[in-house]
Amino acid sequence: MKREITISAPGKLMLLGEHAVVYNRPCIVTAVGQRMRATVELTEKSTFQLNAPDVQIANYQKPMDQLGIGDLPKGAKFVEIAVVNFLRSLLEYSRSDLVKPGVKVSTTSEFSSQFGFGSSSASTVCVIKALSEITEANLNNKEIFDLAYKTVLDIQGKGSGFDAAAATFGGTLYFVTGGKTIEPLNIDSLPLIVGYSGIKADTVTLINQVKEKAGGNPQAVEDIYDNIGKLVEQAKLALLGKDWQSLGELMNENQKLLTKLGVSINKLDDMIAAALKAGAYGAKLSGAGGGDCMIALAPEDKVQAVKDGITSVGGQIIEVETNAEGARIETRD
Ligand code: PMV
């Protein structure tokens, strides 16, 4: 049995379809070059240990029989529940013989957890894949995704799982709620510009906010979701055909619908308007809204002007490689 393994998984950016994807509609997500890493070791002592400096977790320890019990620190939740879910799945398959008494995890990230790049899901996927490899349970990607998605739901109660899918499979995915469809889209890369608003958004708060709005007029919100679903289907074709102009226009349509849902904010609106004014084909918020990032698609000769436009209204440009590789083994011994 291996002693230690390091797995990395990519962050993500939602291209189109957010919010609607929580309610049985499709979205398109791309994995980004910035990665999360987790080193996992099985230990003789029956203790769970975690170091995650990016989320201020230093030398967190508890007995294995207390795993998942009590008030878990915010930065430890996803990793801890991921370990619980993995161990439970081994029990279900009567393979608990595969695990040694203790688990030691350390995570590091190439991106700030403030960006909304999906650091929690990426670390969840890293830990599940690491445990799967180190115990030789050899889960396939769908099984890793399913456990990661379960972990997200255990903690947040809500979510589509798109971020766990991007972290697991990588590339650019056409994805339907809960992984009902996970279809890799065969493209090389996207001329995408990313602007960070400087404001941290909370996904669950925004999902709840939309739900509250729907309470007042459920049919109107269902119609918005239907329209988002339809434009995602068109966007899939535009993306595969590298028709950036049409894709940009669909992003603009999507942004209008997100504004109707009430999840855009002034800062994002300003960054989006600046990108369009500077010649972008299209621009929209990416993710839950309320902050985090916006994305823009622009012709090659307008990229600099679009970046300058976003910066001029206080946005911060984040360079990203799109369509990045999914979870992978970095080192093992
Ligand atoms: O806040 P983010 O970047 O994780 O994006 C959330 C996207 C939602 O559709 C609102 C939620 C989800 O899980 O799909």
Automatic annotation (TrEMBL):
Domain GHMP kinase C-terminal: 238-313
UniProt keyword ATP-binding, yes or no: yes
Pfam families: GHMP_kinases_C, GHMP_kinases_N
Record keywords, A-Z: ATP-binding, Cytoplasm, Kinase, Lipid biosynthesis, Lipid metabolism, Magnesium, Nucleotide-binding, Transferase
GO MF terms, alphabetically ordered: ATP binding; mevalonate kinase activity
GHMP kinase N-terminal domain: residues covered: 89-171
GO biological process: isopentenyl diphosphate biosynthetic process, mevalonate pathway
A GO CC term assigned to this protein in UniProt: cytosol
Pathway named in the protein's UniProt entry: Isoprenoid biosynthesis; isopentenyl diphosphate biosynthesis via mevalonate pathway; isopentenyl diphosphate from (R)-mevalonate: step 1/3
NCBIfam families: mevalon_kin
Name the record gives this protein: Mevalonate kinase
Protein source organism: Candidatus Daviesbacteria bacterium GW2011_GWC2_40_12
